[in-house]
Amino acid sequence: FLEIERQENKTLLAKYHIENATNHILTFSLTMEPSDTFAFQGPKQLTVRMLPCTRRSFEYTLLPLTRGLLAIPGLVVYDINYKKILVPLAATPELKVEKKSLLVVC
Description:
Blueprint: E1 2-6, E2 12-20, E3 26-32, E4 38-41, E5 45-50, E6 54-64, E7 69-71, E8 75-79, E9 84-86, E10 96-98, E11 101-105
Antiparallel strand pairs: 1-2, 2-6, 3-5, 3-8, 4-6, 7-11, 8-9, 10-11
């Protein structure tokens, strides 16, 4: 799931939380998609292994390049073991869901 926090310097802190609720060690490939509306700071691509029944968080600093209702850059989380892409869920009321995008007002 995704949480958004507004920072004093007009950036947004995006916290992506990934949970392995299984009894198996899972491997995930994470890729941050490019965006025309945000610059971001954080890992563009990485692979993580997760122990059973654990949760990990990944933080990105987002700088809006324009104003209005903007789509948050997507973090593609691919479960290498089950060959599935996980869909992020909005965890803060500021986020709006439209089709396959999470939107925030900047």
